[in-house]
Amino acid sequence: MALTANGETGSYPTNLYWGDTHVHSSWSADAASYGNQLLTPDHAYRFARGETVTAHNGERVQLRQPLDFLMVSDHAEYLGLYPLLRAGDSDLLAMRNGGRWHALFKEGRFERIGYLAAGEMEAPTETIRDQPFNRTMWDRVIDNAERHNDPGHFTTFIGYEWSSMPDTANLHRNVLFRDGAERVRQVLPFSAMDGTDPEDLWRHLASYERRTGGRAIAIPHNGNLSAGRMFELQRFDGSPLTEGYAAARARWEPVVEVTQIKGDSETVPYLSPDDEFADFGTWDEMRGMGRFGHRDAMYAGEYARAALGNGLAVEQQLGRNPFRFGLIGSTDAHTGLATADDDNFWGKFSVGEPRSGRADEPWVPLDPPGGWVVGTLMNALLPPQMTAWSLVASGYVGVWARENTRAEIFDALVRREAYATTGPRMAVRFFGGFDFTAEDAQAPDLAAVGYAKGVPMGSEIAGPGAPNAAPAFVVAAWRDPLGANLDRIQVIKLQVTAAGQVEERIHDVAVSDGRAIDADGRCRSPVGSTVDVEAATYTNAIGAATLATVWRDPHFDPQRRALYYARILAIPTPRWTTYDAARWGTERPASAPAAIQERAYTSPIWYRPASGETNGPGS
Predict the structure, then answer these.
(1) Which residues, listed in sequence order, are joined to residue 64 by a DSSP beta bridge?
(2) Is the torsion defined by CA of 207, 210, 213, 217 positive or negative?
(3) What percent of the chain has pLDDT over 90?
(4) In this structure, are residues 138 and 189 in contact, taking their beta carbons and an 8 Å threshold?
(5) Enclosing H/E stretch for 243
(6) DSSP of 67-124, one letter per residue?
(7) Nearest to residue 484, comparing CAs of 424, 525, 406, 412?
(8) Is 166 exposed, middle or buried (0-12, 13-18, 19+ CB in 10 A)?
(9) What is the DSSP string of 428-480?
(10) Can you tell me whether residue 370 is helix, strand or coil?
């Protein structure tokens, strides 16, 4: 269902649409390896639009609120391997490992097939990328999306995941097409077997656009598991950043997925020690997707806030900002079920569907070459982030668009008029400009005022508007109608100094329950908690249903590049592990928080000094 702001029908976008651009079905090799043998792309689309489907444990599952759009982003690597094994595809069986895979499939050794396939991705001895079944499966992917696309009611995007992982560094991107079957059928997915450098992927997308006249983008995700490489200050091959690289990255990657099941990638305490809310869904003990070896030097290349700040510094040097991206969320569910609610969390993989004891098990089952004994030892040595309790029930993307169609939602992502939530469907507006007054926050037509006097999230303001005038920001948030009240709204400011250093400031700009904001812009009083841990319940006796304000930067320097984004915090609610413990009468994992504060992150608004050069939307 779409939320319409005051029923406006002007030229600006008034509809808020909710979606997930990162869901895997049984057609992804890892999803099928770890339990998803039943839920196909068809099930994923049906579930997202509000229909009931049956999970592997026999339970019937339905979203309380349907989504407005979905992309099933099955991995390009070994796309459809398990359906082809089930069908006994002759081309697949003729490959060197095809017969071995098929024999393991008939034995039910699904994890072993995935393990062997992953090894071949690192050093393929016989390419799978040019086989005829790739065309067959890609055509089926396209047909599935086309069959479920219902413009105006439910939008499906054709796309896939490019799964580059050099030395376990997660550099994955989801490729999302604006177009329908006629154009997208002219290409095949570009996989990590075709190239592991993101620039190779961008060149492939550029070729697609030249050949077809279509449009496509790549959405990076899991920077927190990239071993410092997602936002590194050099190119993939180690050479220095260039203006051309910066322009290309900003062009092809307008948004970044900053929250999902495998942790939150906004920031961490190491990078933001003065941010008491930084430690949400933190995964920082692993070097990429490997087990051990994370180093502090990796942090700056893993988290979005640091990257956004570094982008300002790079722009000051090169004239272009490679990290000019908006913030979105999606689930990365490999279950086919786009659920992001703690009280209805269906796990990362289908082996982690709701049941007693799942929180203490590995979130990725192990089937190593050494067999059961080695597997038992490896499980005993699991770092915390390989245990299922560390998974996060997150997230979704909200976009402001004129209508629920591929073109409108794609264009909203490109102009970065989109934002992330960790699950709750909070409605958020964020505008910046020089002409806002305090009264504008309470305007009944807030969107009309925001677009008339300023620019929305994802845009740029240049200035100052008057000699030394500081920019003002209108930010308003409404709680999820079915969820928790709001604690506060914060504005995160990043500014680059003349020496190229990045400064970070956090401002509490609106708080609930009459609490005070100190002179330094911080509210030191916690909102409190109504969570009953044993019962796994909470009430909305604290917090606010709506918060809105106009905030003007008190530390503005008109000569310095800066950016601002809003973070909205809800009151504490039970975590999924707390719901599990109450549901089955079991103990909560000792290391798992009992309660969390769900949140939303808007895309930034950039400030450019009057003498600077612009990088407009999509540039």
Answers:
(1) none
(2) positive
(3) 78
(4) yes
(5) helix 243-252
(6) -SEEEE--BSTTTTHHHHHHHT-HHHHTSTTHHHHHHHHHHT-HHHHHHHHHHHHHS-
(7) 424
(8) middle
(9) EEEEEES---GGGGG-TTHHHHHHHHSEETT-EEEE-SSTTPPPEEEEEEE--
(10) coil
Cβ atoms of residues 185 and 139 within 8 Å: yes
Would residue 462 be called left, alpha or beta, if left means φ above 0 and alpha means ψ between -120 and 50 degrees?
beta
Amino acid found at 587:
E
Angle at the Cα of 258 from the Cα atoms of 429 and 405, rounded to 5 degrees: 55
d(CA 28, CA 33): 9
- How far apart CA 177 and CA 217 sit, in angstroms, is 7
pTM given for the model: 0.94
- The reported pLDDT for the residue numbered 146 is 98
The angle, 0 to 180 degrees and rounded to 10, between the axes of the packed helices 304-318 and 243-252 is: 140
The neighbouring-strand residues paired with 327 are 256
* Confidence at residue 618, expressed as pLDDT on a 0 to 100 scale: 38
Number of H helices, E strands in the chain: 15, 26
SS3 249: helix
Query: Which pLDDT score is estimated for 2?
Result: 38
Tokens of 168: 């376990």
Query: In this predicted structure, what is the pLDDT of residue 94?
Result: 83
Determine how β-strand 155-157 pairs with β-strand 69-72.
parallel
- Do 103 and 190 contact (CB within 8 A), yes or no? no
Q: What element of type H or E holds 335? A: none
Cβ proximity of 538 and 531 under 8 Å: yes
The residue count of the chain comes to 619
User: Which residues of the chain have a pLDDT value below 50?
Assistant: 1-9, 125, 370, 372-374, 613-619
**Judging by DSSP bridges, how do beta strands 562-570 and 605-609 pair with one another?**
antiparallel
What's the confidence (pLDDT) of residue 617? 40
